[in-house]
Design brief:
It contains six helices and no strands. By secondary structure, the chain is mainly α. The chain is globular.
Length: 129
């Protein structure tokens, strides 16, 4: 449980910061996404970073039973898969990035889900018990 709380203590606040930043910058996100989509290198490098983070989580915390700690493991594996997709398909993902950036409903929904997961993991990491 200690490693679950420790890793959740990193993931939770990070997801909270990402979600709040997305919501605060909602008006400029389409332009940011379009700019990122013009550079497959940015997509590729973000994939490398995401893959490394996911691999570190999956190696340190490959827990598939026991309640909420499974969420930490799932996020690690999703990060690895997302990183691999960005590394192997940067030019194919670019149009998808633009389409997502132009859809405010999808952006807000993703930010709200990210906010909820970040808040939950932060509570588990820093709350009592």
């Amino acid at each position: 449980m200690t490693s679950s709380r420790t890793i959740a203590g990193f993931i939770g606040p990070t997801l909270l910061a990402i979600a709040v930043a997305e919501l605060v910058n909602l008006g400029s996100l389409p332009a940011l996404m379009e700019e990122a989509a013009r550079s497959p290198l940015v997509i590729f490098l973000s994939g490398v970073l995401l893959f490394v983070a996911g691999l570190a989580i999956a190696r340190a915390h490959n827990v598939w039973s026991g309640g909420w700690p499974v969420l930490v493991t799932v996020l690690g594996w999703l990060a690895m898969l997302g990183g691999l997709a960005r590394m192997f398909l940067p030019t194919r993902l670019a149009p998808l990035l633009v389409a997502i950036g132009e859809n405010a409903t999808v952006m807000v929904a993703a930010a709200v889900v990210t906010l909820a997961i970040g808040a939950f993991l932060s509570f588990k990491a820093y709350g009592r018990g």
